[in-house]
Design a protein that fits this description.
The chain is α/β, with parallel strands linked by helices. The protein is built from 13 helices and ten strands. It binds pyridoxal-5'-phosphate. The site of pyridoxal-5'-phosphate has 14 residues, from helix 3 and helix 4.
Amino acid sequence: MTLSAEITRNARPYLHGPEFEAAAEAMRVGQYGHSETTERFEAELARYLGVPDVVAVASCTAALHLSLLVADVGPGDEVVVPSQTFCATIQAIISVGASPRFVEVSPRTSCVDGRAVGDALTPATRAVLPVLYGGRAVDLSAIRPVLQERRITVIEDAAHAFGSRTGDGPVGATGDLTCFSFGPIKNLTCVEGGAVVPRNPDEADALRELRTLGITQSQAERIRTTTYDVARHGLRATLSAVHAAVGIVQLQQFPAVAWRRQELWRAYAAGLARIGVDVVDVDIDRTVPFNCVVRIPQRDQVHAILTSMGVGAGVHYPPNHLQPAFAPWRRSLPATEQLGREILSLPFHPAMTTTDAADVVSLLDGALEEVR
Ligand SMILES: *Cc1c(COP(=O)(O)O)cnc(C)c1O
């Protein structure tokens, strides 16, 4: 069987075409840093999500880092977080000097639930950082009253979840600090980029200072004066005009991408059910899925077979609590460790067709025959 080129890649950016001209135009204009184009992207994101404001930043890693800073999380504080996430989530916690308190996820969804989070709270807990794995919204309603009473901030890692919905509205519009990634393979790409949905105007102002090295004046104000004020600690985490220009085009075309991702995931789920393979559930009716992840006891062997055939199989992600960098916070997490051994991400990106998905399912079925 000749493989379709699309299934040789686990994931790849999906461009519609006008992104090239938009990026070129932003480069011709010549203002490459934060600009009016960045602000237009922020306004269009806010309109799409139905929220008052969105702060664009250089990456989701920066979005998480800045969110922890505005929530006043720092040394001595604990942040409840699943081990089952990209290492960027944990690095952001370490960056503010706080300690990750790793918790289990449900093997069915790869997401935390209210019970796991509630059990992990200690007097030092300052924030909870749910990861919307695969794009699935995380429902913490069962422990909201406790979190509110103890003034624990919820910061969502919604890197996978742009476009997904909760029972109450879009992810990002539910009143928490929500962080999105617009990196290369995410649902919406700026090439590189990210955004934070702030909870109120003061927080939005603070995030805007934090992303520009603590400088209080806007770009426009700085052009008119001979000095500027550095009011606080800050990072260099602005989103450039060139990246924002790409994002504006991607947002205009987003409904088609959302639809294709859902269609592809449903095609996979139907095929996987036929061959009796478990898939991590993303709540597809509400979710714009980032990936399609199966659970296979013989994962390493199947990964090797698929890879040798040129199929773009991957793993999202090896557990963080077992990484050397995070050893000080290691604890026993049997469900996460089992997931870490069993999960396999099938090729998944909007250029794939449902026929491609069916082909991957039959190649996977063949690989499973070999190892059984
Ligand atoms: C991609 C990703 C990030 C980091 O996003 P960047 O924009 O690359 O910094 C964080 N968390 C998760 C779960 C991710 O998949």
